[in-house]
């Protein structure tokens, strides 16, 4: 018997929703439109897959500092990486997007810019899909749980806000801990370079509802890597850098909780993408200690 196709959730669900919304309003017309976006993260993977399904081309501007394996994999999934020459000359990804949009006609293209930092579709997807999916899993796995400490990070803030709002609407008492790299503070617009691709990305997260945030915890990469290795060894999950950052904080909070209280966090992706950041950092001790 043929199995029903499983629709991906989380970030994949977010891009899928954005594509679906654009199809409905005629912004994307298969056979005519090319989707364009600046991303090297999960949103880009979701776009590549959602668009491949409906035969729509995708062109992505991926910052040069993004994981090389991710870049290759995006191409493997059918996305075309554009603007590399401009990026090499120092242009910002948004400048590349602008150049392509302005010159679309002369290139014979009809672009649809999904604009993830201003597209409400991601927030809708996390509110209506990821959040309810988590509530269902919690109801089955931990029916006695009423209180949640939700540990998450923010790029656009769509996943954190959508999930937090949905869980609260489902009746959970929830407090939210925002995780940020040491040296960054999204609340004041202070950002720095760091190896946690996907969080604290240099702009204030547009969908982050600060009324949900009860506290911020700052993490150091060298500490996070120890947790990353520990989870791999003890649990068999080699999680990505932002996931490990959230798990690092979540694991410090999980002791001494009441019976109806759990810590919840998100595993955004896996660690193989980021071996370059882990092995390239001379300050890290890569032996187990
Ligand atoms: C690896 C990773 N972590 C965290 C995030 C943050 O997600 P959001 O944009 O929903 O805040 C992203 C976003 O794509 C990501 O790719």
From TrEMBL:
It comes from the Bacteria. InterPro entries: Cys_Synth/Cystath_Beta-Synth, TrpB-like_PALP, TrpB-like_PALP_sf. Residues 30-268 form the Tryptophan synthase beta chain-like PALP domain. Pfam families: PALP. Keywords: Pyridoxal phosphate. Its cofactor is pyridoxal 5'-phosphate. SUPFAM superfamilies: Tryptophan synthase beta subunit-like PLP-dependent enzymes. This is Pyridoxal-phosphate dependent enzyme. It comes from Roseateles koreensis.
